[in-house]
Amino acid sequence: MSTTTNKPPVTSLRYYDFDINLAMVKSIAETLNNQNKLSHDGPIYYVKVNIDTDYWQVSCVGLECVDTPYASSYSSSEELPESLRDKIRRLSILEPQTPEVAGVGLRVAHNTFWIYG
After folding, report:
1. I want to staple 50 with a disulfide (CB 3.0 to 4.6 A). Which of 2, 10, 55, 80 is the partner?
2. Segments making up each domain of the chain, as ranges
3. C-alpha span between 4 and 24 (Å, rounded)
């Protein structure tokens, strides 16, 4: 018996996804407005989850993104690479807009993270 889901299909890296790019710009503005900063030197990943569907979107920011090890989306938290999942777990215990964790990233909202590569 086949089951269908309402999750978008997992796709390869897309550079011009309007919705996620707009969300990233809003997130950067909120982060700076809260006197936080993203001080990592290297790739930074914007990670947003739809909590209702467990659908994860990942966008890389930085010159090193050409060789990103991550896909642009994952259908569940179980599909996330362990390195990404570990950093999200660490940040999940913090309140949103708590100052960055060196080498890990920053939690922007309950469902949004900046993860350092």
Report:
1. 55
2. 18-116
3. 30
